[in-house]
Amino acid sequence: MSFSIDWLNLREPADSRARDSALIARLTDWAAGRPVRVLDLGSGTGSSYRALAPALGGHWTLTDIDTALLAEARHRHGDAPTFAATRHLDLVRDLEAVISEVRPDIICGSALIDLASSTWLDRLAGALPRGTALYMALSYDGVEVWTPNPPHEGVAHAAFLDHQRTDKGFGPAMGPDAARYLAEKLAGETHRVWLGDSPWILDGTERDLISALAAGSTEAVAQSGALTDAQLGDWAAHRAAADHVRIGHTDLLALPRD
Ligand SMILES: C[S@@+](CC[C@H](N)C(=O)[O-])C[C@H]1O[C@@H](n2cnc3c(N)ncnc32)[C@H](O)[C@@H]1O
């Protein structure tokens, strides 16, 4: 599954506003005064770097399967003292290896774990070193409110949720269940875990993002065959014209107990 620079640019302002600021404060307090090594999994062009590095500092390694996104990250930030390296990898193949090589103090990611399967999330939890923090932001939680409410919304949204659970390269995706699943895996002897809501709250001024979301969800629902062509067209038109949209996300933070 690939993600364009345009799409990542379009969503970044909404992502940035949505991140749970209390979890970021907790993470930066934990890291304060230390030259932390940060490993960003599925970094794209560096959205998490831009959100966190100003407060966190550190030495960042950005990783992705998409070389164009990594090149864009280097183009934007390659000269910054906090920007250490990019690594082209496949997180399905290379997860444990990159963690062993970088020996991060913090592993982070955004809009990633909802793409992953329970098997991969088990691997991530198993590979997290005892003293390393994990911050995974902006996992889709499955709750959407489009206003005014489009016709056929219940049937269409159920079909969309089914699509969220299809394979995105990591095996059957956990989709909206990912953050809670990973939180339960991590909470225990070695780490304390917090979840925070990070919804996108969009109004008519973000027409381009609303239109792109409406188009993306229409493509997914069309594949399901849950609506007739006429119903699909009606639903899609109402979504594209919505003047207020709330898309639920969850942020997860796990900090070492010692
Ligand atoms: C939704 S995008 C989020 C990008 C970035 N974290 C952000 O918030 O803008 C998911 C990212 O995961 C990357 N990705 C997907 N599958 C991957 C894999 N198997 N290995 C490494 N990166 C992967 C994609 O290329 C993409 O950059």
Automatic annotation (TrEMBL):
Gene3D superfamilies: Vaccinia Virus protein VP39. One of its GO terms (molecular function) is methyltransferase activity. The keyword Methyltransferase applies. Keywords: Methyltransferase, Transferase. Pfam families: Methyltransf_25. It comes from the Bacteria. GO terms for biological process: methylation. The keyword Lipoprotein does not apply. Residues 38-90 form the Methyltransferase domain. This is Class I SAM-dependent methyltransferase. It comes from Pontivivens nitratireducens.
